[in-house]
Amino acid sequence: MRVSNQFGRQRLAASILLALVLTACGTSAPSASPRPTPVPTPSPTPDPHLIDPATADAIFNSVRLAGLPLSITNAVGGDATSPMVKRINAAIDNWPLVITQYKSSATLRATVKWDPTKQPADGSPPYVFVGLNIMIAFGPDGGPPPDATRQAQAKRLIEIVDPLLWPLEQRSLTPIASRTAPPPSAAPSASPKAAAKASPKVTPKP
Question: Which of 33, 75, 100, 161 has its CA at a distance of 20 to 30 angstroms from the CA of residue 22?
Fold first, then answer.
């Protein structure tokens, strides 16, 4: 009987050991949950728009940093009685670029009698842009209409200064759309016959 009881206990121990082994093999260790990837907080884009009065130096440096073939001739400052604060005479690929800073936008418009609806007068540069208190003239005075290369340079110039000075106004031989305003419509020139047929202006009697 002792041998039989001992044999039974051995079989029970073997059964328990086998059950433990099978349980260990069938249970996998819990996998570690992946850590959530932190979402970066978007940083606000700084507003490059300048405040009136802006400086001619800020505009010149922006054009220079943009990589245009820019060179500077000289800079002239105004005196205490002058409406102009500073004028930078430069060039883009040998085409004159004049950046003039006035004391304020109101001073600029009163001094040059700025009207963006008018066509460039005879002898004026092919491109003139105005924003805030800054006037930018591009091209030689009274020069020929700009070719495709000069138009591309004027377009690039607008892309640079428009975010700084918007809304940007222009008086150009070949108007260029800006990001803040469409190009001004070119007013058709009146033909001599139409001018001759135009009725004289009647002045009302007092």
Answer: 33
Which one-letter amino acid corresponds to residue 174? T
Scan for tokens 């040059």, then name that residue: 112
Domain spans of the chain, in order of start = 56-172
Q: How far apart are CA 135 and CA 129, in angstroms?
A: 6
pLDDT digits (tens, 9 = 90+) for 161-180: 999 999 999 999 888 888 76
Cα distance between residue 153 and residue 66, in whole Å? 12
pLDDT digits (tens, 9 = 90+) for 5-37: 565 666 666 666 666 655 555 555 555 566 767
pLDDT at 12: 65
Give me the DSSP letters along 3-32.
Answer: HHHHHHHHHHHHHHHHHHHHHHHH-PPPPP
